[in-house]
Amino acid sequence: MATPLIIDTDPGVDDAFAIALAARSPEVELVGLTTVFGNVGLDLTTRNAQRLLAHLGRTDVPVVKGAEGPSGAADVHGEDGLGGQAHTLPENDRELFGDDVVGFFRERLTPETVVVAIGPQTNIARALDAGLVFPRLIVMGGGLDVGNTTERAEFNFWADPAAARTVIRKGNPVVVPLNLTHRCIADTEFLEKVDPVLSNFTGTYRAYLANRSENQGIYVHDAVAVAEAIVPGALKTETHRLDVDDEGALVDGNHQVEVALDTDWPALRAFMEQRLSV
Fold first, then answer.
1. Active site amino acids
2. CA pair distance 134, 116, nearest whole angstrom
3. For 121-165, how does the pLDDT look when each residue is reduced to its tens digit (9 = 90+)?
4. Cβ burial, residue 9 (10 Å; 0-12/13-18/19+)
5. Distance between CA atoms of 222 and 12, rounded to whole angstroms?
6. 3-state secondary structure string, 134-170?
7. Which of 5, 32, 92, 145 is deepest in the core (most CB within 10 A)?
8. Residue 278 class from Cβ within 10 Å (0-12 exposed, 13-18 middle, 19+ buried)?
9. Which helix (H) or strand (E) is 198 found in, with range?
10. Shortest CA distance to 139 belongs to which of 272, 275, 9, 4?
11. Per-residue confidence band for 73, with pLDDT thresholds at 50, 70 and 90
12. β-bridge mates for residue 5, sequence order
């Protein structure tokens, strides 16, 4: 039986890869996408989510418009969130499933549901503050002594530190940090093997990274987190006692958290290439 999966997302180039990975994996039933501000503003992340589903032939999947806030990654993902290529996607004629993310979670969560949060944690924190319990919560965010927005803070946690703190303290998440995802690079060879529509989104992101490193591809942060929902145990975790400071950095604390710090990247890469090809 397929595992019910909800993805909380701010598409975003690597979000697009993550959504496609879920949509093309029979091990999971994609129950819905809930959107959040982040890589670009909420209206764009929501529209991108809808149009990605149309491209993937999954207009059956509802999209719920979530929390707004300041966006800040257009230099990485492009002004439209998809490297200037969002216009290449088809329109999705299905209407939004409203804007009550907490209500959607309350209605759709079952004891088997996995929620993967791959944007700022605002929607998830609001649900936790409303008393909801996530049976399994996987979060892409944070870093142990590493950041990508400041020296210490990763973007998703930096964008709403209070929400990230709530998730660490109340959500019992599996955290997928930069320490792992920075080792998971979709290089030129990878991008040549997968859906060309997805690869076409990566130009701005590749240029951004090339100006800062010898990296000739992109980090697939979010797809790594979604892969753990599809294939439980794909990521190897360690228990750490953590909290989140006002900058959004993971720091030593009193809350026991499972942190994914290792994977068999060649095997995971091959899995992604196979699922993301057309």
1. 221
2. 10
3. 999 999 999 999 999 999 999 999 999 999 999 999 999 999 999
4. buried
5. 10
6. CCEEEEECCCCCCCCCCCCCCHHHHHCHHHHHHHHHH
7. 5
8. exposed
9. helix 196-199
10. 9
11. confident
12. 30, 114
User: Mind listing the pLDDT tens digit for each residue in 196-248?
Assistant: 999 999 999 999 998 877 778 999 999 999 999 999 999 999 999 999 999 99
Residue linked to tokens 């020296």: 151
Residue 108 to residue 176: CA distance in whole angstroms: 24
Provide the 3-class DSSP secondary structure of residue 120: coil
Question: What DSSP character marks residue 81?
Answer: S
- Phi and psi of 185, rounded to 5°? -110, 125
pTM of the model: 0.98
Residue 182's closest CA among 155, 203, 200, 161?
Answer: 155
CA distance 141 to 161: 11
Instruction: Find out whether 77 and 39 touch, Cβ atoms under 8 Å.
Output: yes
